Amino acid sequence: MPELPEVEVVRKGLAKHIKNRKIEKAKVRNNVNVLKGVDFDTYAGKVTALVGDNGAGKSTLIKCIAGIYTPESGDFLFDGQKVEINGPRDATELGIEIVYQDLALCDNLDIVHNMFLGREQKKGPVLNETSMEALARKTLDGLSVRTVKSIRQTVASLSGGQRQTVAIARAVLWNSKVVILDEPTAALGVAQTEQVLNLVRRLADNGLAVVLISHNLNDVFEVADNIAALYLGQMAAQVNKDEVKPQQVIELITTGKSAGVSGVKA
Length: 266
What we know:
Blueprint: E1 6-10, E2 16-28, E3 32-43, E4 47-51, H1 58-65, E5 75-78, E6 81-83, H2 88-94, E7 96-99, H3 111-115, E8 122-123, E9 126-127, H4 129-142, H5 160-172, E10 178-182, H6 190-205, E11 209-213, H7 217-223, E12 226-231, E13 234-240, H8 246-255
Parallel strand pairs: 1-2, 4-11, 4-12, 7-10, 10-11
Antiparallel strand pairs: 1-3, 1-5, 2-3, 2-5, 5-6, 8-9, 12-13
Helix pairs in contact: 5-6
């Protein structure tokens, strides 16, 4: 079986697709150092959970990967090659897509138009509705989405889980390699959460590198392959899920260390 591609984002990267090679410093919010010496890896075909308390640096790390913030030092490795990410367009061209917690959907538009928002296909001076509808349907079918009655219904009529599904489908529509999901189940009920977690798992099974940001350790242990824990702007550890217990992850999140956990940074 061929080796999966790796993405390195700050020391090593983001998805054997991405590796982060040592983000030594990333400053945001009034010149405050938020990230210090962070190494973070995510791999094609796997779900990497990024966990940490509020203020640990999760959002800053993701925004560095997305090109919104520029680290003062450090390297990004993508498929083993050093790359420059100087803005959101660079990240998008590499195949990195982020689904933020607010989803950025327009309630008054239907599913098709939301999936192509800002990237509409045209046929002459008008929108190519036939092509967009066919691609939207193909993407949803490819993710085994069965909960949407019509792709022409407005987003305002969708449940929370269906909205999350549309936002994720939009992210993978563009041949993405890395999909980053920011708290995708935060505002969902039990049934909708299960729906979204199944979709997250299918993304990885389809060969994408998935980064799942979550405070819910039940969700993390249900779908993640490995867990990266940030503590006060530093990577406490990145470990295989099967090598740790929930209590140890809680200790990494709250103290930056846990007895018996390999991969803990000194």
